[in-house]
Specification:
There is one protein chain. The protein is an alpha/beta fold. The chain has 5 domains: about 120 residues, Ribonuclease Inhibitor (Leucine-rich repeat, LRR (right-handed beta-alpha superhelix), Alpha-Beta Horseshoe); about 100 residues, Leucine-rich repeat, LRR (right-handed beta-alpha superhelix) (Alpha-Beta Horseshoe), CATH 3.80.10.10; about 120 residues, Alpha-Beta Horseshoe (Leucine-rich repeat, LRR (right-handed beta-alpha superhelix)); about 100 residues, Immunoglobulin-like, CATH 2.60.40.10; about 90 residues, Immunoglobulin-like. The chain has 6 helices and 45 strands. The longest helix is centred in the C-terminal third of the chain and has 32 residues. Bound molecules: 2-acetamido-2-deoxy-beta-D-glucopyranose (11 copies). The site of one 2-acetamido-2-deoxy-beta-D-glucopyranose (NAG) has 5 residues, from loops.
């Protein structure tokens, strides 16, 4: 440091006395820089098809513009320019930047643009020496890998733009030294997960864009430290749920965009206690329901942009609870057949849009018609009054709402269910299913479910409901074939009743277990059908028949196995054997097939093994005949299972270990079998 300073002082009078003229390839001028906001000595060599940077450039140059040339290598190519503040190298063919010798003498540099180049990596040290840099732009490049400490010592950096590269993960280490960063642009990359504490060092960050990435998961602590963040852009990702907990870290957040994400539903508390003024959740093809309390305790929320969601059929009358500042609510081009007046009642003045929705001309549009008549004096001001239409039924032509006669619109009407009224759902065993049932009507309809067994579940006794969920939501966990049947949702008010029927078909499993060889102390059980069901492993459960409270003993077997010999049994005792699959969530077993067998008495010392049933013979023959087929299918099933398992990247990390099991098991099983 010291030597470099003295060197500058010594060199300066010498160099400044030399009159270096403008390179012939370039224009030299004094120019108002947009980036530095001052007039700077500029050498402009833009778009000259140069292969090399001019070697002699006036030493007083403060801005060197070199975009649109053909530089591929910068090593030993950048002239000595002690006053350089601004360097634009965008739109070149730069393939690599090396580890630190390129920019190191540009100690005054404040702005560097390396966009539209070809390099793929940023290695530690590349920016060594340019610690005055305030703005670094590397957009629309091929950047894939960024070393963890590449921005070390760049504590003046305020603006980092890495838009449009191929970055797939963000490392917290990048930011350890750039704690003054205010603007971070990472849109149009391939980021798929936001880890906890990623941004904890950049406490001054105000703007963070992660639009157009592939984010599927956000850690609850992903935004910790972003106390001053005001704008968070998460639109156009693969986010399926609002990251409610993660959002709580940001105490200054004003603008939140979650547009074009595959979120299907907003439930109670999706957004809570965030100081946002503006939330945008538009352009989602999957969003269907906005339930009670989705926007809860948002004391600063003024604008909710919820338009262009072609599947959005329901916004609950109490979707906004304790949102006193709401002034703008855009709901146009959704799939709403009605909107409850409750949403805007008792609010000072809300500006609304609602055109492009399949509104029905029933009692639900009465308040809208009324508001249109009152113009600006209504508490609900429609911004699109002339575009509002409704229809008698969804098939009929729509008519202008304004042209309706208020007196012709009834004050009450029957419940109208949203969505398909008849639906068949095919489910796999052990899956969970959620059925949503919502209805509009005045008075607001009450909902209840009638299960296939005839049991009625309503708000007071629906123990399937998780607290906080809408009463029209029925969630069934750990499905079994016997859960199949018609689930009816009934919406009822004093005008009429409406039904919605969901037929659930839980795939049956065709697995049979039989005792094959029985001795006094061991029983061999055989089974079939396991290869054609997608479980990677099964459990054999057994216990004696005579002690009611007895726990099952369990043995885990792979789907490729067909038999198992259980040792150390009590002679002359009745046993129950079952084949089952483990329900991971419940830690319980789902029994697929069971059989009984009585062990021989103690005198029967393992010589005379007898076969218990004809079924068992058939099974054994079937096993031999089917062996070839089974092996083929086994490999297919493995592949299918793995494919399913790898769909979520986070899960796959955990999944690796579990996959090792089936192969290991087979060896231990073989040794057991031979005893
Ligand atoms: C630099 O030169 C290019 C091409 O001649 C021109 O388009 C651009 O406006 C110039 N920039 C400045 C700052 O003079
Ligand atoms: C930077 O400056 C040092 C000391 O003056 C010199 O040795 C080195 O060659 C320079 N590097 C470049 C890339 O100009
Ligand atoms: C946040 O911003 C306020 C003013 O906007 C400022 O006073 C405060 O120092 C900032 N805090 C951090 C951690 O950047
Ligand atoms: C929604 O999509 C349209 C067309 O794709 C686009 O022009 C618009 O900017 C998007 N709006 C939001 C809020 O994402
Ligand atoms: C819109 O709602 C109707 C019924 O209200 C439904 O039949 C249709 O599938 C919905 N459209 C979309 C895209 O979800
Ligand atoms: C309603 O307000 C808007 C803007 O606030 C104004 O342009 C319009 O003329 C007003 N309409 C009436 C009927 O007062
Ligand atoms: C649903 O089932 C009920 C009774 O079984 C029947 O009355 C009703 O018409 C069905 N609804 C639809 C939409 O099929
Ligand atoms: C629903 O399905 C049942 C039986 O498949 C049928 O009788 C009924 O008409 C259907 N209802 C509607 C509204 O499609
Ligand atoms: C729920 O159903 C039970 C019996 O079916 C009934 O006694 C109760 O009043 C119902 N509760 C509500 C809130 O409808
Ligand atoms: C339905 O209930 C409302 C009050 O909730 C009442 O004003 C209306 O008269 C009732 N209608 C019928 C048909 O009972
Ligand atoms: C298993 O064996 C039993 C008895 O032979 C037979 O009834 C059943 O269909 C078989 N199941 C499969 C899936 O092959």
């Amino acid at each position: 440091m010291f030597t470099w300073l003295t060197l500058q002082i010594i060199m300066w009078p010498v160099v400044s006395s030399l009159e270096i003229s403008c390179p012939i390839e370039c224009d030299c001028l004094v120019h108002q820089s947009l980036f530095i906001n001052a007039k700077v000595q500029t050498v402009n060599c833009s778009s000259r098809d140069l292969l090399e940077i001019p070697s002699v450039v006036p030493l007083t140059t403060e801005s060197l513009l070199l975009p649109g040339n053909q530089f591929s290598d910068l090593l030993n190519n950048i002239p000595f320019l002690p006053r350089l503040l601004e360097l634009d190298l965008s739109n070149n063919l730069i393939k690599q930047l090396g580890r630190g010798s390129i920019f190191q003498n540009l100690t005054k540099l404040r702005f560097l643009d390396l966009s539209y180049n070809r390099f793929r990596t940023l290695l530690n040290g590349v920016f060594r020496g340019i610690h005055k840099l305030e703005t670094l732009v590397i957009s629309a490049g091929h950047l894939k890998f960024i070393d963890e400490r590449v921005f070390d010592d760049m504590n003046n950096m305020k603006h980092l733009n890495l838009k449009g590269n191929s970055i797939h993960s963000i490392s917290a280490e990048w930011f350890y030294d750039v704690m003054n960063l205010e603007f971070l642009e990472l849109a149009h990359n391939e980021v798929f997960y936001l880890n906890g504490e990623t941004f904890s060092a950049v406490v001054h960050l105000r703007h963070l864009s992660l639009s157009h990435n592939r984010i599927r998961g956000i850690h609850e602590r992903a935004f910790v430290g972003l106390r001053n963040l005001t704008t968070l852009l998460l639109d156009n990702n693969y986010i399926t749920e609002v990251p409610s907990v993660a959002l709580l870290s940001m105490r200054s957040l004003r603008v939140l965009r979650l547009d074009a994400n595959p979120i299907s539903q907003l439930g109670t508390g999706a957004f809570t206690h965030v100081p946002v003024e503006e939330i945008s959740l538009s352009n989602s093809t999957t969003l269907q329901l906005i339930d009670r309390g989705s926007f809860l305790d948002l004391l600063s929320l003024e604008k909710a942009y919820l338009f262009n969601n072609p599947s959005l059929q329901y916004v609950d009358s109490h979707a906004f609870i304790n949102v006193p500042q709401l002034r703008v609510l855009l709901l146009h081009r959704n799939n709403l057949s009605a909107l409850s007046h409750e949403i805007v009642k008792r609010r000072p003045s809300v500006h609304l849009t609602l055109h492009g929705n399949p509104l029905l001309c029933n009692c639900n549009v009465r308040w809208i018609r009324k508001a249109l008549g009152q113009g600006n004096s209504s508490s609900a001001v429609f911004l699109d009054p002339d575009k509002l239409t409704c229809s008698q039924t969804q098939k009929l032509d729509s008519i202008s709402l304004k042209s309706l006669n208020l007196a012709d619109i009834p004050p009450f009407c029957e419940p109208v269910m949203i969505g398909y009224l008849n639906k068949t759902i095919n489910a796999e065993i052990r899956e969970s299913q959620t059925f949503a049932c919502r209805a509009f009507g005045i008075p607001p309809p009450k909902l209840h479910w009638i299960l296939p067994s005839g049991i009625v579940l309503n708000e007071s006794n629906n123990n399937f409901l998780t607290p906080g969920k809408h009463p029209g939501t029925l969630t069934l966990h750990h499905l079994k074939p016997k859960d199949s049947g018609v689930y009816k949702c009934v919406a009822e008010n004093n005008v009429s009743v409406a039904f919605k029927n969901i037929t659930l078909q839980v795939k049956n499993v065709d697995i049979g277990l039989f005792p094959q060889r029985v001795s006094s102390t061991f029983v061999t059980v055989v089974w079939n059908g396991t290869a054609r069901n997608n479980f990677p492993e099964y459990d054999i459960l057994y216990k004696t028949d005579n002690q009611p409270g007895e726990e099952y003993k369990t043995i885990t077997v792979s789907y490729v196995h067909r038999s198992y010999t259980i040792n150390n049994l009590e002679p002359d005792t009745n046993y129950q054997f079952c084949i089952a699959v483990k329900d991971e969530e419940e830690g319980d077993y789902l029994q697929l097939s069971c059989a009984h067998a009585q062990t021989r008495d103690a005198n029967f010392i393992m010589q005379g093994i007898y076969t218990t049933s004809k079924g068992a013979i058939a099974v054994v023959l079937g096993i031999v005949a089917g062996m070839f087929l089974t092996i083929c299918m086994a490999s297919m099933v493995t592949r299918k299972y793995r494919h399913r398992h790898y769909e979520t990247p986070e899960k796959s990390l955990i999944g690796n270990m579990a996959h090792a099991l089936p192969e290991n098991l087979s060896s231990s099983l073989m040794s057991q079998d031979s005893t």
